[in-house]
Amino acid sequence: MQCMIIQFPLISKCGKIEKLYDESQGMQEGIFSTTLEGFPGGPDIFLIVAKFCYGFRAELTPRNIVMVYCAAVYLEMTDEYGEENLLSKSDNFFHKNVLCNWKDCILAYQNCEAIVSKAAKLQILNKLLSALSMMVSTDPSLFGWPMMMYGSLQSPGGSILWNGINTGAKIRSADSDWWFGDVSYLNVALFERLIQAMESRGIRPEILAGAIMYYARKYIPGLGRWRGGQTVKTRTFASFSLTPSSNDQKVLIETITKLLPKKKGKSFCRFLLGLLRVALIIGVNSMCQDSLERRIGMQLELATLDALLIPSYSNSDTLYDTDCVERILGHFISSEPRITSFSPLSFEFEGSPSSGPLNKVAKLIDNYIAEVASDVNLKPGKVHSLAEALPESARNLHDGLYRALDIYIKAHPWLSEKEREQLCNVIDYQKLSIDACAHASQNERLPLRVVLQVLFFEQMQLRTALAGCLNILDSENPSAGHLTATNGMAGQIVKREGWVTLVRENQVLRVGMERMQSQVVELEEEFNKMKQEMKRVTKSPSSLSSPRLVAKRMGCNLLPRSLDAQTDTINSTGPTPRASLERAQSSRQLRHRRSFSFF
């Protein structure tokens, strides 16, 4: 900057100009001309300095205080060159008026953009960052700020003031996001410095993540839809005097990715997926893209299907970026070791605490494959690698995987028999439900070998379930012992959907068989009694001489004695008492045979 000194007041107040004047040899007619290289603030700030030197009132504001302070240091306007010189005045205004007020502090920090290096060297930047971090980490009701969100002034003690009188009414405590709107007016470089300063001060990561997400949604188009249904309130205390900054989108995304803390959450995961979409469109560097994919992979169980459907922005023929999803899935698997142990005593899977997220991711990937399966350009190898990426213990049932592959085979009827078999080999047919087995056994799109495998395992499940039914019925008997491990596994299979009705029908059939068996036992006992009675009758001679006694014992009623004469007359043609006894015995045996013929 070139300036011309006409009189001496400017020289007497500025040590640097005085030295330049003494060293100068180019004085002509009392006019001194020099160039001030690297003067902070430009002509506007030099005008303020000149007015101060000539006795005019210096207009110090939060917008120009940092540049005036740097200019005073640059010109060496210390008290050595005049009492209450500009450096002491600006320093006093900065510490007493700016650092203790949120709005003025934000305004002063925002206007440091042009002289960041000088302000950082003079420790002004660090003082502003420390003051802002302290006010963010402290309840704002403790300060005597004119809090706009409350609609009235408040006393330093936290009570609401009315016409300067303490009303005694306490204000509500402020939320932790009250400052998001104000810091969003900073450019990306100043915002980065502020977040780093707050992080070093110990502010909670979730609060910093909220501020970063707010800032990103304001300047990155398309991120507003990835809020997870949450509404963001715009709260600013100083926005009436702030102007938004213009940021380069690529630099902005790379900076935000670097600032994001390690945090998990549904809304945060959704935000990361939205940020990855924009990053792929803009074309950020590979380090930024890998960082985003790794962060998403660490919390993939919290992702949703619509957020995971990332369109393909490269030269690929596919509609969706399946390569990106596969990389994210790889980060999820490698982020935390997931070991599933098998207990031979209980025949149950004993999963680690991470088995829940693993099952959620498996369901998410199955739905993802089903969604992208209709793409005619999607190769079977990519579908196979996505389906096989997760371990076997990730899926308790393979119904979702079967549905996804069936949709893919239906959308790609030109696949060869070998390609369809390779896809179907991913499915574990022992983990298909009854409905899925029934559908697969009648699915004409599946290879014949696969259909035979489905039928085989369906028969095995049926046998196991029937065995489990019988074991359950035996366990209802008090005299029965404890179920074995195999019975427990069968009982679990019985509980599956579709087997409850079969169990009930078998129980009813078992009860009916027990009743019929008891009836057979009763009939056998009655027959044995009759048989013993007949033996006793045939062995007694007196019994044979008295037909009425025999008939009475056999349960027969004879005719009255008046008819005895008639029976004697036909004695030659009628049956003998022994023959009558034999006929009665044969008829009784015939009835028993008929009763046993039912069984």
TrEMBL record:
rRNA processing is among the record's keywords: no
Bias-annotated ranges (Polar residues): 564-575
Q: Which UniProt keywords apply?
A: Coiled coil, Ubl conjugation pathway
Where are the coiled-coil regions? 506-540
Q: Which InterPro entries match?
A: NPH3/RPT2-like, NPH3_dom
The UniProt record lists the NPH3 domain at 177-461
Q: Which parts of the sequence are annotated with region: Disordered?
A: 561-587
Similarity field? Belongs to the NPH3 family.
Q: Name the chain's protein.
A: NPH3 domain
Q: What is the species listed in this Swiss-Prot or TrEMBL entry?
A: Dillenia turbinata
